């Protein structure tokens, strides 16, 4: 229940519910985790098919799909999922068939093949690893996703002109709001770091271990989280660009898990104390962001904003 609240009411999730490809990745993140957990106990054609399909469908939406592929490879190496290879094969066939329209367009469209006008065209696979900073930034985003220090577009673009006409009061509300969000965000960022440190010590000495037989759920989940971190780091090393937060939204649900494991381990039954305060805090942030932020405005309704976006994007 605590995970559902932090996930479904999280501004990292709700603020990205707009019409662009990263917004659709959350479903495939959830599908990947659910099917992997189902494959923990038994080999299944259906779950193996859906697991591979989650990677293939994410591939058609965003290049961060490689993170899911790396995660599945780690789980397979660790021998903590029981794969049905018939399901894997059929999923692969379905993915290839679904790519036929793209392949046809690729063969006919010179602009796609040459990728003209790409400002990053001089970069190469492995550019991120050579320059180090992209890898560090990606890991910092992992920590941010597990905290309440949300995107600056949500925090700093709020003006509170919907609350009062007084410029003086607007500035008071604006900077008070920013101080609260950045201060609380900084505290939770430290907790996120400690949670990942806790996870590290829990897995220390078993990073390369291959398991035989079944393992407890907490151990399995910790390895799954480790595979996500590894996926982020490897993709950042291979990437020819520096990631921004929307490039890594596919791992947002997984980044919350260390925080919850850590909280459960150290707070136990006291976790209920944080439940309603966090709900109130998240609802407050979402309310403000939904009517006064860089992506949403109280001046027009949602349908009008969508139409304006589509007209700007495709006209």
Blueprint (SSEs and pairs):
Elements: H1 2-8, H2 11-14, H3 25-38, H4 45-59, H5 65-78, H6 85-98, H7 100-108, H8 110-114, H9 127-131, H10 133-145, H11 152-155, H12 167-203, H13 217-238, H14 252-267, H15 272-291, H16 302-314
Helix pairs in contact: 1-14, 3-4, 4-5, 4-6, 5-13, 10-13, 10-14, 12-13, 12-14, 13-14
What this model shows, in words?
With 315 residues, the chain is mainly α. It has two domains: 94 residues; 192 residues, no CATH class. The protein has 16 helices and no strands. It is globular, with a radius of gyration of 21 Å. The mean pLDDT is 85.
What would you say about this model in short?
The chain is mainly α and 315 residues long. Helices cover 67% and strands 0% of the residues.
**Overall tally of structural domains:** 2
**Secondary-structure element series:** HHHHHHHHHHHHHHHH
What sort of overall outline do the alpha carbons produce when their principal axes are compared? globular
* Share of helical residues: 55-70%
Poorly predicted ranges (pLDDT <50, ≥5 residues)?
A: none
Give the total of beta strands. 0
- Secondary-structure-based class equals mainly alpha
Largest sheet at a glance? Answer: none
- The portion of residues forming beta strands comes to under 5%
Separation, N- and C-terminal Cα atoms: 44 Å
What integer is the average pLDDT? 85
Number of helices: 16
Top keywords for this entry?
mainly alpha; 2 domains; 0% strand; single chain; 315 residues; 16 helices
């Amino acid at each position: 229940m605590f995970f559902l609240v932090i996930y479904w009411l999280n501004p990292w999730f709700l603020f990205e519910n707009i019409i662009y490809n990263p917004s659709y990745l959350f479903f495939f993140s959830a599908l990947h985790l659910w099917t992997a957990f189902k494959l923990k106990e038994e080999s299944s054609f259906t779950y193996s098919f859906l697991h591979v399909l989650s990677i293939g469908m994410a591939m058609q939406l965003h290049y961060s799909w490689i993170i899911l592929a790396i995660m599945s490879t780690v789980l397979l190496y660790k021998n903590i999922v029981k794969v049905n290879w018939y399901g894997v094969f059929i999923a692969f066939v379905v993915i290839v068939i679904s790519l036929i329209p793209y392949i046809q367009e690729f063969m006919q469209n010179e602009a796609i093949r040459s990728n003209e006008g790409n400002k990053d065209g001089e970069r190469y696979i492995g550019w991120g690893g050579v320059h180090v900073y992209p890898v560090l930034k990606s890991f910092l985003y992992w920590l941010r996703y597990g905290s309440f220090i949300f995107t600056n577009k949500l925090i700093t673009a709020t003006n509170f002109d919907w609350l009062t006409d007084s410029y003086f009061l607007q500035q008071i509300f604006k900077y008070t709001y920013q101080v609260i969000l950045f201060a609380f965000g900084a505290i939770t960022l430290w907790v996120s770091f400690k949670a990942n440190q806790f996870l590290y010590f829990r897995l220390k000495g078993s990073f390369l271990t291959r398991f035989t037989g079944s393992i407890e759920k907490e151990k399995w989940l910790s390895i799954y989280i480790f595979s996500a971190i590894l996926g982020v780091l490897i993709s950042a090393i291979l990437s020819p660009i520096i990631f921004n937060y929307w490039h890594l939204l596919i791992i947002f649900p997984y980044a919350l898990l260390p925080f919850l494991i850590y909280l459960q381990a150290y707070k136990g039954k006291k976790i209920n104390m944080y439940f309603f305060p966090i709900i109130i805090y998240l609802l407050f942030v979402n309310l403000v962001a939904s009517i006064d932020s860089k992506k949403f405005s109280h001046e027009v309704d949602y349908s009008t904003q969508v139409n304006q976006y589509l007209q700007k994007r495709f006209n």
